[in-house]
C-alpha cells in the first residue's frame, strides 16, 4: 500500500484528507481547460506548506512591526528581486493576497471615491475590478467601459481613445479575463498619456507568457503592472504589483497599511519558487508551447465548425460562441465536465443571454501544456469537445461516458506536475 501523502492530515481529519485525495485524483484524470488554472510544481506546493505559515510579518523587509523576521525578510526580498529580474521592472510588491486586492490597492494609490476609472466591460472580456458596476470598484468609483467591435471581436483603439479623452479617467485599465488576442500596450500608453490617466496593465492571465517571451510586455509602457501569480505563471494563489520607481511608495503604502495586514509568508515563498522556475529556459519553451497549443486547438475547432470570438487566438485562451450549435454555454460546460473535460461557461461579446446562462464557453491550454501535451494532441481535444457538445444537444449520456474514458486513457501517459496520482 502506498503511504498517504499527508499522513498527519489523514490521522487528524480523515474526512478532509479524503476530499484532498479525491481532488488530486480528479485533477490527474480530467482534461483541465479552464485558462485561469494550472498545475504548480511539487516545489511550489512544498514551499506553500512550510512553517512560514506560523509567522506574522506586518510591514516590509527591514521595516517590520514584529520581531523575529531574520528569515522572512530574506524570503520576501528574494521574491522581490526575482520578480524585478524576470519582468524587468523598477519595483515589485509581492504581498497582495490575490488579484482583486491588488487592483483595489491601485485604486487606493491613485484615485479617490467618485473618481472616473475606465476599463474593458465585463461582458466584452474585462474583469470585475476594472470598474464594473456589481464590483466595489464600480460602486466606489465612476466606471466607464470600452468594448470590442461586433464585426471582429477586436478592441477598437480609436474608440478607446475617443472615450478616454471624453471621460479623462484617473486610471485606465487594459487587460481582462477573456481576451484571446494580443494587447497593444503601446497604443494604450499613448491614449493614457493623452487623457492624463495612470495606465494599469492587468496581466493576470498572460504573466507567464510575458515572462517566457511569448507575449509582448507592458513594462516599457504601463505605470503599474498588476498580476496574479498562478494561471500561466504556475505559482501559488497570490498576486504582485510592479511599477515604475516613481510610484513605488504609493503602491507599497496602498497594499500595507492601506488594505492588508501581515502578508502570507508561505505564499511569498511559493511565489519566489515559481519566479525562479519561470526564469529557466524550460519555462520559455513552456510559454511558447502554450501559445502553439492554443493556436492549434483553435484551428482544429474552426475545422469542426465552431465559432470563435475574434476568429482564433494569439495567446493561451479561446472564447467559443455556441449559438450556432444550438447549445447554451452552461449546458455545454456541464456536459463537458461529465466527459472529463473541465471548462467554464462564459459570456461572449454582445451576448443576448444572461451571465449565469450565457452563450459561450472559455477554454485554454496552460494546464494541458504543463502535462506535456503538444500540438499533435490538439485535434483529438477538439474532437472530444465537438462530440461532447453534440452529445449535450442530444442528451446522449453514454457518448459522454465514452469520451471520459478516452480522456482518462490519454492523460495516464502524461502525469500532472505536483500530483501523486496518475
Q: How would you describe this protein?
A:
By secondary structure, the chain is α/β, with parallel strands linked by helices. 44% of the residues lie in helices and 13% in strands. Strand 2 (59-60) and strand 3 form a beta hairpin. It is globular, with a radius of gyration of 22 Å.
Neighbour order of strands in the largest sheet: 4-10-9-8-7-5-6
List segments where confidence is low: pLDDT < 50 over at least 5 consecutive residues: none
Query: Portion of residues in helices?
Result: 40-55%
The count of strands amounts to 15
CATH architecture of the largest domain: 3-Layer(aba) Sandwich
Query: What name does the CATH topology of the largest domain carry?
Result: Aspartate Aminotransferase, domain 2
CATH class of the largest domain: Alpha Beta
End-to-end Cα distance, whole Å, is 16 Å
User: Which secondary-structure class do the elements indicate?
Assistant: alpha/beta
Biggest sheet features: 7 strands, mixed
Strand fraction band?
5-15%
* Overall morphology: globular
The domain tally reads 2
Mean pLDDT: 97
Count of DSSP H/I helices = 16
Key attributes of the depicted protein:
422 residues, Aspartate Aminotransferase, domain 2, 15 strands, single chain, 4-stranded antiparallel β-sheet, alpha/beta, Aspartate Aminotransferase, domain 1, 2 domains
How is this fold's topology laid out?
Elements: H1 7-12, H2 14-29, E1 31-32, H3 42-48, E2 59-60, E3 63-64, H4 70-87, E4 91-93, H5 99-110, E5 116-120, H6 136-140, E6 142-146, H7 157-167, E7 171-174, H8 185-195, E8 198-202, H9 207-211, E9 224-228, E10 239-243, H10 248-259, H11 265-278, H12 281-303, E11 307-308, E12 317-321, H13 329-338, E13 341-342, E14 344-346, E15 360-364, H14 366-370, H15 378-394, H16 397-411
Parallel strand pairs: 1-13, 5-6, 5-7, 7-8, 8-9
Antiparallel strand pairs: 2-3, 4-10, 9-10, 11-12, 12-15, 14-15
Helix pairs in contact: 3-11, 4-11, 5-10, 7-8, 12-15, 13-15, 15-16
Amino acid at each position: 500500500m502506498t503511504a498517504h501523502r499527508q499522513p498527519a492530515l489523514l490521522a487528524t481529519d480523515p474526512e478532509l484528507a479524503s476530499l484532498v485525495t479525491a481532488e488530486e485524483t480528479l485533477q490527474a484524470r480530467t482534461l483541465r481547460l479552464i485558462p485561469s488554472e494550472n498545475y504548480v510544481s511539487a516545489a511550489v506546493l512544498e514551499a506553500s506548506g512550510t512553517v512560514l505559515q506560523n509567522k506574522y510579518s506586518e510591514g516590509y523587509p527591514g521595516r517590520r512591526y514584529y520581531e523575529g523576521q531574520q528569515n522572512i525578510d530574506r524570503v520576501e526580498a528574494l521574491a522581490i528581486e526575482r520578480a524585478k529580474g524576470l519582468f524587468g521592472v523598477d519595483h515589485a510588491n509581492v504581498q497582495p493576497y490575490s488579484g482583486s486586492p491588488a487592483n483595489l490597492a491601485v485604486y487606493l494609490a491613485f484615485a479617490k471615491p467618485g473618481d472616473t476609472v475606465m476599463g474593458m466591460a465585463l461582458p466584452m472580456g474585462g474583469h470585475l475590478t476594472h470598474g464594473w458596476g456589481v464590483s466595489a470598484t464600480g460602486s466606489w468609483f465612476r466606471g466607464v467601459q470600452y468594448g470590442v467591435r461586433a464585426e471582429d471581436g477586436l478592441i477598437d483603439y480609436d474608440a478607446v481613445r475617443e472615450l478616454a479623452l471624453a471621460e479623462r479617467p484617473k486610471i485606465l485599465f487594459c487587460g481582462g479575463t477573456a481576451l484571446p488576442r494580443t494587447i497593444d500596450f503601446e497604443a494604450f500608453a499613448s491614449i493614457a498619456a493623452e487623457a492624463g490617466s495612470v495606465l494599469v496593465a492587468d496581466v493576470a492571465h498572460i504573466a507567464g507568457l510575458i515572462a517566457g517571451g511569448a507575449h509582448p510586455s507592458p513594462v516599457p509602457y504601463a505605470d503599474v503592472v498588476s498580476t496574479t501569480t498562478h494561471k500561466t505563471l504556475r505559482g501559488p494563489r497570490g498576486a504582485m504589483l510592479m511599477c515604475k520607481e516613481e510610484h513605488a511608495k504609493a503602491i507599497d503604502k496602498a497594499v500595507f497599511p492601506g488594505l492588508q495586514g501581515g502578508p502570507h509568508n508561505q505564499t511569498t515563498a511559493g511565489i519566489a519558487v515559481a519566479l525562479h522556475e519561470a526564469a529557466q529556459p524550460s519555462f520559455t519553451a513552456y510559454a511558447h508551447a502554450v501559445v502553439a497549443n492554443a493556436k492549434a486547438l483553435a484551428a482544429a475547432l474552426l475545422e469542426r465548425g465552431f465559432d470563435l470570438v475574434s476568429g482564433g487566438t494569439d495567446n493561451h485562451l479561446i472564447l467559443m460562441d455556441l449559438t450556432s450549435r444550438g447549445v447554451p454555454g452552461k449546458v455545454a460546460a456541464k456536459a463537458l465536465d461529465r466527459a472529463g473535460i473541465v471548462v467554464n461557461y462564459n459570456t461572449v461579446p454582445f451576448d443576448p443571454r444572461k451571465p449565469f446562462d450565457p452563450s459561450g464557453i472559455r477554454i485554454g491550454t496552460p494546464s494541458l501544456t504543463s502535462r506535456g501535451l503538444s500540438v499533435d494532441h490538439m485535434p483529438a481535444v477538439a474532437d472530444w469537445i465537438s462530440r461532447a457538445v453534440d452529445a449535450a444537444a442530444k442528451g446522449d449520456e453514454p457518448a459522454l461516458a465514452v469520451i471520459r474514458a478516452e480522456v482518462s486513457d490519454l492523460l495516464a501517459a502524461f502525469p500532472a506536475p505536483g500530483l501523486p496520482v496518475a
